[in-house]
Design goal:
Elements lengths: L1 E7 L2 H16 L3 E4 L6 E9 L2 H15 L5 E13 L2 E9 L3 H15 L12 E9 L4 H4 L8 E5 L1 E8 L6 E9 L3 E4 L2
Antiparallel strand pairs: 1-3, 1-8, 2-6, 4-5, 4-7, 5-6, 8-9, 9-10
């Protein structure tokens, strides 16, 4: 099954993100927009992993971060990744904190023991849309879009499965790892 590890964002972030999506749609942008219930900060995309292995990975990851201190990060700003001269992905910025990087590094180190490698630099962000089409002079149309700073408290991460459908992905929580509470299985 397709799997990824993520941190959920709060309702305030989801509401503000939906308002930005609405603006972009009204301005002529077409995208596969991320629904509020699917908004998250991806830590790792693991790809296809069988159920037995993901269970083992979840246990090891959770053990690795048991007692990790709770922390927060700030979602702030709006941006995009480009392909050539075209917008490819719209995102909300995440201010990188030492604790977020430490969590990422702990999980990455544990995942490396399970055969995963991640060469790309970690650029924390929250994807809100994968752009399909855009209007002429699109850069001018997004100059005024911004995202006010919103703090997100973190005391856990989740492991999700992702099923691709023609109407967009369906995410299902498989495991939740609470820093102080241990592993919860949903599968």
């Amino acid at each position: 099954m397709r799997t990824f590890i993520a941190i959920d964002v709060n309702e305030e972030v989801k509401k503000q993100a939906s308002e930005i999506i609405e603006k972009l749609m009204k301005r002529g942008f077409g995208a596969t927009w991320v629904s509020e219930e699917n908004m998250h900060l991806t830590l790792f995309f693991l790809g296809e992993v069988d159920e037995q292995k993901i269970s083992e990975i979840a246990e090891h990851l959770c053990r690795r971060v048991r007692g990790f201190p709770s922390f927060s990060f700030t979602v702030k700003g709006f941006g995009y990744f480009k392909r050539k001269m075209s917008p490819r992905v719209f995102w909300l910025g995440v201010e990188n904190t030492d604790r977020l990087m430490k969590l990422y590094e702990e999980l990455r180190n544990e995942l490396s023991h399970h055969g995963f490698s991640f060469e790309e630099k970690f650029v924390p962000h929250i994807t809100i849309g994968r752009v399909k089409y855009y209007p002429d002079k699109w850069e001018k149309l997004i100059e005024d879009i911004d995202f006010p700073p919103i703090e997100v408290a973190v005391d856990r991460f989740k492991i999700y499965s992702s099923t691709l459908t023609p109407t967009g992905p369906i995410y299902k929580v498989l495991y939740e790892c609470q820093f102080e509470g241990g592993l919860i299985r949903y599968a």
